[in-house]
Amino acid sequence: EEANQQFVANSKIYSSLANKKIKKEELSNLPFVLQSPLSSSRKFLDKLCKKYKINLKENYELESYDLTLEFVKAGLGIGLINTNHIKKELENNKLFILNTDIDIPKRKINIDINKKEKDNKYLNEFISYLK
User: How open is the CA angle 82-36-123, to the nearest 5 degrees?
Assistant: First the structure.
């Protein structure tokens, strides 16, 4: 699966940013909800920030993606979120994608499965969920 990650914010709390082109230099002045530095998503973001010479201001550093998403939904900061997971929130304007001058590349998500586990009911349900 391809992950389409974008900077996302709560539409009510960050309405002043909704119709604005945000320059990379301005991102360092905004509050962010970030995942732990050990997560692959955070490593991806850190690499992106290094490329564009951006220092993000971290409001919260969280251990899980789900918690990061909940904090963003609650308006506690901006997060790098997979837009495949928030289609409903984008459609009903609870969240919006920030318009920035940063090109965020799509990421591929791969899962390797041990052949011995191919008939595992729970594993197959999990894979179906991810698809």
Answer: 60
